[in-house]
Amino acid sequence: MQQHGVIAHTLLTDFDISLFQSGKHFRIYEKLGSHITEVDGQKGVYFAVWAPNAKRVSVTGPFNGWKPDAHILHPRWDSSGIWEGFIPDLGQGTLYKYHIKTATGISLDKGDPYARRWETPPGTASIVWDFNYEWQDKKWLEQRREKAGKPQPWSVYEVHLGSWKKIAEDGNRSLNYAELAVELVDYVKKMGFTHVELMPVMEHPYFPSWGYQITGYFAASGRFGPPEALMQLIDACHRADIGVILDWVPSHFPSDIHGLYLFDGTHLYEYADPRRGYHPDWNSYVFDYGRNEVRSFLISNALFWMEFYHIDGLRVDAVASMLYHDYSRKEGEWIPNIHGGRENLEAISFLRDFNEAMYRHYPGTETIAEESTAFPGVSKPTFEGGLGFGQKWMMGWMHDTLNYFKRPTLFRRWHQNEVTFSMVYAFSERFMLPLSHDEVVHMKASLLYKMPGDEWQKFANLRALYGFQWAHPGTHILFMGGEIGQTTEWSHDLGVPWQLLEHKFHSGVQQWVADLNAVYTSRPALWRHAFTPEGFEWVSGDDSENSVMTFLRKGDAAEPSLLVVCHFGANTIDGYRVGLPYGDEWVEILNSDDAKYGGSGQVNGTLKAERTASHGRDFSIAFKLAPLSVQIFEGLKPPKPKAATSKKVTPVKEKATKPAKKGKN
Prior knowledge:
Elements: E1 2-3, E2 6-7, H1 14-21, E3 33-39, E4 42-50, E5 54-60, E6 74-75, E7 82-88, E8 95-102, E9 107-110, E10 126-127, H2 138-146, E11 155-159, E12 166-167, E13 173-174, H3 177-191, E14 195-198, E15 202-203, E16 216-220, H4 227-239, E17 243-248, H5 274-277, E18 278-279, E19 284-285, H6 292-309, E20 313-316, H7 319-323, H8 345-361, E21 366-369, E22 391-393, H9 395-406, H10 417-420, H11 422-425, E23 431-435, H12 455-471, E24 475-479, H13 504-522, E25 536-543, E26 548-553, E27 562-567, E28 573-580, E29 585-591, E30 606-608, E31 619-625, E32 629-635
Parallel strand pairs: 11-14, 11-24, 14-17, 17-20, 20-21, 21-22, 22-23, 23-24
Antiparallel strand pairs: 1-2, 3-4, 4-7, 5-8, 6-7, 8-9, 8-10, 12-13, 15-16, 18-19, 25-26, 26-27, 27-32, 28-31, 29-30, 29-32
């Protein structure tokens, strides 16, 4: 049957509808949205959209002069609320919107929630698009699967693609995906990071939102090129052995009228009550996690990026805002759950479903929660009652450590607990230590200018901060610009000031970060037991008078241990003695005070352990303790693991029975 130019057709089965309505259809993008297909020998596009409260839905575009009466979709005969139909003679690149007549008679023009491409802002139309890209990362994907569940290094470089590098001579434009596939990949490889984390690349109308106000959840931003060009960038990362993490935002969406808000004239994707459905901090709207069709939308969106873009992990934004009804709300501005508590039980259930689906369908990938509270079990498996994330940002470490480093060195002796306290709870979750974009915007100052003292001390403090971050148990992430000691706050309009590398202090910080990565990735002691106590041991955390803390990082028994010495005072101490777990030679493999990094050059080289007791240990070394530094020593010959002992049993020999003497006859 044909209705106003639309042929009745469906790709949806009864099973699809059942899964969709139960919140368990994790590939609903295969059926909803726009799909190039063929019906009765005619090529065209099948459209399907969920709008259960609409009075009428039609497809508009340049092909019909944007006339809402030209191509009216058919409502399904079931209770799904889906409108669908096939329009002949349309194809790749067709611009379109859904024209929705609401029950109250209002007309809305909406983009397709499932569209795989959108117009580049300020355009707001969706685009019919089938991907056409030949991936070359088979080896990477196979290795990723083989490494699933096994310890591996995670040193993450956070990037805002639109401002990583600007081309001043070309109108200060951003690099496109194809250019980033060369320049960004080469740089990350040179710096030794294992992963890049891309701030949201999904289509968003407002560039200064940095991608966190998304309208096109299934579409890569067209600001930097077509979808296949983003695939090219990710493919290039994989072929350079660099993993790619995407920021994913299931916590809220903007109120742009062409987006998800009031999609069919009702609160379809968002909670209807503003005490649950409106985010006061971001002037945005909260997904209704109790509506099953919304859960199918979100989880299938997460899996979509893994399937079509080969993403290696998702960092989930603003998880705390999802978990609590009273997040950023005063008393009386929120609604308790059915038990009278503040937890959003629907969001908790959704996050568990999301994580289970991710790890079941894409083993070897990782989910990471930006979660700023003490909610229990964020990175515990769901079968243990946790949320099921692979890692969680260690916001407490970030706040305490930056507070400590802001203090003048003279006063740090009274605040040693700020840098030792994180070890109390370091293994309660699988933590990632963040120094992210959030710490260098909104008048917070750059990391460099958070540091006290003169210019030399600022850079020395910054190098020491990074040394502490890399050596601390867990994994770590650093925002772009931090690795060169950026002097200004990050600006999405200006980008990273790469010209600073002409100055020695800045190039020294960059070299320090590269060397930290080189040591980190090559020494299993720093990552093999990143999330368990076996990988860490205090030597001394109480030398507050000298602002010194020392600890061991350990791999397996046959692997050399590392002695990490953090000195956050501004003086040099000769003959500083530290206890060791075993003797032989200990080599200083990193020292942030090395002259090549811009330091004063107080280095040590190879030291022979002495049989002099210190810190409750039989062996020790005495060395030159550099000012404002992190020094890492490697024990060359770890003791051989003791073999299992058992009481030696001496076998008892049986006495030979002598033959009887023959008597005389």
